[in-house]
Amino acid sequence: MNMTGTGSPCGACKFLRRKCVRGCVFAPYFCHEQGAAHFSAIHKVFGASNVSKLLAHLPISDRCEAAVTIAYEAQARLQDPIYGCVSHIFALQQQVVNLQAQLASLKEQAAHSITTAANPNGDVQSWWQSSQNQPQLDADFHGYFGGGAEINPNTSSLNNQSFGSFDSGEMQSEERQWPFQDDLESVAFRYIHH
């Protein structure tokens, strides 16, 4: 009997074309239906044996988070073999800096509006016009990370920045597709529910 409870091998064993035995370390984290697709990237980047050893040495309470993290890093490493998740992290950090600047600007505008109460309609209109000129977050950012109130789980790209050289500190902006986004969300949500 296998650990999936359906009579089918787990996704990892299905990908590896081996029998899924009772106590399979992969079974709780790689379902039969989608696990093989998720595990293929993990096997390609880290190797099944290494991941098996890693999961086996972790406390059971930490394995789910480790499996999700390993899956994410493997997908990111396939997408960007040099930097993996690092380029994604830097892009998010840049978005944080941009949002902090936008917040500071809005706070300054709000303070200005409060101090100039002589013409409230003019202040609201000038605030509205200036807020329309502020850089807006890409909707894909909300959907990808689930941050904020606008969640769109059907998007599959986000504006990402790639860094040409760490020494020079130069950054190039490019549109990077993250085709594994929906897969990772399904993996993460499956683990959260278990």
UniProtKB/TrEMBL annotation:
<feature type="domain" description="LOB">
    <location>
        <begin position="8"/>
        <end position="110"/>
    </location>
</feature>
<dbReference type="Pfam" id="PF03195">
    <property type="entry name" value="LOB"/>
</dbReference>
<protein>
    <submittedName>
        <fullName>LOB domain-containing protein 29, variant 2</fullName>
    </submittedName>
</protein>
<comment type="similarity">
    <text>Belongs to the LOB domain-containing protein family.</text>
</comment>
<dbReference type="InterPro" id="IPR004883">
    <property type="entry name" value="LOB"/>
</dbReference>
